[in-house]
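Quick note —
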Amino acid sequence: MKQILLSSVAALTVTLGGLATTVQAENPLISGDEPMNIGQEGQLTAPTPDAAAQEKTGEMLRQQGVELTGDEPMNIGQEGQITDPTSDPEAQAKTAADLEAEDDASGAISGKYD
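Predicted structure written out below.
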Protein backbone atom coordinates (compact mmCIF):
# COMPACT_ATOMS: atom_id res chain seq x y z
CA MET A 1 0.00 0.00 0.00
CA LYS A 2 2.86 2.38 0.88
CA GLN A 3 4.57 1.68 -2.44
CA ILE A 4 1.46 2.51 -4.44
CA LEU A 5 0.95 5.73 -2.49
CA LEU A 6 4.62 6.80 -2.89
CA SER A 7 4.64 6.02 -6.61
CA SER A 8 1.42 7.99 -7.09
CA VAL A 9 2.87 10.99 -5.26
CA ALA A 10 6.08 10.77 -7.33
CA ALA A 11 4.12 10.58 -10.59
CA LEU A 12 1.99 13.56 -9.57
CA THR A 13 5.12 15.58 -8.65
CA VAL A 14 6.79 14.85 -12.00
CA THR A 15 3.60 15.76 -13.86
CA LEU A 16 3.18 19.06 -12.03
CA GLY A 17 6.85 19.93 -12.52
CA GLY A 18 6.61 19.31 -16.26
CA LEU A 19 3.42 21.33 -16.45
CA ALA A 20 5.02 24.28 -14.64
CA THR A 21 7.98 24.41 -17.06
CA THR A 22 5.68 24.11 -20.07
CA VAL A 23 3.52 27.02 -18.90
CA GLN A 24 6.58 29.20 -18.32
CA ALA A 25 8.05 28.51 -21.77
CA GLU A 26 4.81 29.55 -23.49
CA ASN A 27 5.08 33.13 -22.20
CA PRO A 28 8.38 34.63 -23.42
CA LEU A 29 7.81 38.01 -21.76
CA ILE A 30 7.87 36.46 -18.29
CA SER A 31 10.83 34.19 -18.95
CA GLY A 32 12.90 37.00 -20.48
CA ASP A 33 13.62 35.18 -23.75
CA GLU A 34 12.42 38.10 -25.88
CA PRO A 35 12.57 41.89 -25.37
CA MET A 36 9.53 43.76 -24.15
CA ASN A 37 9.14 45.81 -27.37
CA ILE A 38 8.45 42.94 -29.78
CA GLY A 39 7.23 44.16 -33.16
CA GLN A 40 8.47 47.74 -32.68
CA GLU A 41 11.76 47.32 -34.55
CA GLY A 42 10.52 49.64 -37.30
CA GLN A 43 10.49 52.56 -34.89
CA LEU A 44 14.24 52.30 -34.28
CA THR A 45 16.40 54.38 -36.59
CA ALA A 46 20.14 54.39 -37.03
CA PRO A 47 21.85 57.63 -35.94
CA THR A 48 22.88 59.98 -38.71
CA PRO A 49 26.59 60.85 -38.41
CA ASP A 50 27.29 64.56 -38.07
CA ALA A 51 30.99 65.31 -38.55
CA ALA A 52 30.83 68.79 -37.00
CA ALA A 53 29.07 67.56 -33.87
CA GLN A 54 31.46 64.63 -33.59
CA GLU A 55 34.48 66.95 -33.84
CA LYS A 56 33.00 69.28 -31.20
CA THR A 57 32.40 66.32 -28.88
CA GLY A 58 35.90 65.00 -29.54
CA GLU A 59 37.44 68.36 -28.65
CA MET A 60 35.39 68.56 -25.45
CA LEU A 61 36.51 65.05 -24.45
CA ARG A 62 40.16 65.88 -25.17
CA GLN A 63 39.94 69.03 -23.00
CA GLN A 64 38.24 67.15 -20.16
CA GLY A 65 40.81 64.37 -20.45
CA VAL A 66 43.64 66.85 -19.99
CA GLU A 67 41.92 68.36 -16.97
CA LEU A 68 41.13 65.01 -15.37
CA THR A 69 44.51 63.37 -15.92
CA GLY A 70 46.50 66.43 -14.89
CA ASP A 71 48.72 66.31 -17.97
CA GLU A 72 48.59 70.10 -18.13
CA PRO A 73 47.98 72.63 -15.35
CA MET A 74 44.46 73.93 -14.89
CA ASN A 75 45.57 77.57 -15.21
CA ILE A 76 46.87 77.47 -18.79
CA GLY A 77 47.60 80.98 -19.99
CA GLN A 78 48.00 82.37 -16.48
CA GLU A 79 51.72 81.74 -16.19
CA GLY A 80 52.33 85.50 -15.72
CA GLN A 81 50.66 85.36 -12.33
CA ILE A 82 53.14 82.79 -11.02
CA THR A 83 56.27 84.28 -9.51
CA ASP A 84 59.45 82.62 -8.31
CA PRO A 85 59.84 82.63 -4.55
CA THR A 86 62.37 85.10 -3.19
CA SER A 87 64.85 83.63 -0.77
CA ASP A 88 65.11 85.10 2.71
CA PRO A 89 68.41 84.04 4.30
CA GLU A 90 67.28 85.10 7.78
CA ALA A 91 64.09 83.03 7.63
CA GLN A 92 66.01 80.06 6.22
CA ALA A 93 68.58 80.26 9.03
CA LYS A 94 65.81 80.47 11.64
CA THR A 95 64.05 77.44 10.14
CA ALA A 96 67.32 75.47 10.11
CA ALA A 97 67.96 76.38 13.76
CA ASP A 98 64.40 75.40 14.74
CA LEU A 99 64.74 72.04 12.99
CA GLU A 100 68.10 71.37 14.61
CA ALA A 101 66.73 72.24 18.06
CA GLU A 102 63.72 69.99 17.51
CA ASP A 103 65.95 67.15 16.36
CA ASP A 104 68.25 67.58 19.37
CA ALA A 105 65.22 67.40 21.68
CA SER A 106 63.48 64.37 20.15
CA GLY A 107 65.69 62.86 17.45
CA ALA A 108 62.61 62.45 15.29
CA ILE A 109 64.04 64.21 12.24
CA SER A 110 67.39 62.47 11.96
CA GLY A 111 66.18 59.21 13.47
CA LYS A 112 68.91 59.27 16.15
CA TYR A 113 67.25 58.67 19.47
CA ASP A 114 69.07 58.72 22.80
